[in-house]
Amino acid sequence: xxxxxxxxxxxxxxxxxxxxxxxxxxxxxxxxxxxxxxxxxxxxxxxxxxxxxxxxxxxxxxxxxxxxxxxxxxxxxxxxxxxxxxxxxxxxxxxxxxxxxxxxxxxxxxxxxxxxxxxxxxxxxxxxxxxxxxxxxxxxxxxxxxxxxxxxxxxxxxxxxxxxxxxxxxxxxxxxxxxxxxxxxxxxxxxxxxxxxxxxxxxxxxxxxxxxxxxxxxxxxxxxxxxxxxxxxxxxxxxxxxxxxxxxxxxxxxxxxxxxxxxxxxxxxxxxxxxxxxxxxxxx
Length: 284
Known about the structure:
The protein is mainly alpha-helical.
């Protein structure tokens, strides 16, 4: 009787192990996990041993059943509350834009880079046009992280200052701040960036002049082949409809002109100093 019970216990134990390994294979997608090596272990048939084996098996099954925590890229937290850019950018738009649209780009970027060596998002920009889904998902992540970072509540933005370095480049490249804003708004008009895209103020590759360019979809001037030369953005505006439609509907020019009220020139000046010094884009 004891021998028969022992055989039954050994058989049940093997079945538990097989079940756990099979479950692991299903969840991990590893076919090799289905191969069960012959069991030739000594079995302790005590009640405590049986409980330990079953408990460990259940714990292991639970651990492999839990979704793996993965994803090198995350949506950055905003440095200000959703409503703090009112009345120029409304809170519902900010919440949907940040929590939904940006999050979707990040989720798709993590899928596209799954199993590949982790790289800073800036490093993915140069060859993004040749990198399939990284072009849109990676560009969407970089562009939005850049966008949130350059804005501030209206009172903070109003008190921010253009640095002497940036002021000099603005005057050299456009004549004045007003002239720069006028050219920027013209580039952001629906006829200039048709459909969805971005408008940028960039430092040229030589680091001695500013350029205003528009890019379609989630492209940016860091990507080889998007503009005449690789350039380094210091200021960027999202002109996709999801960035303004709840408040402005089809009035994109009004959205663009109001946006200046939330631009943090301290941050833009810092961006300028960094790219001129490093001849590289802003990293996140």
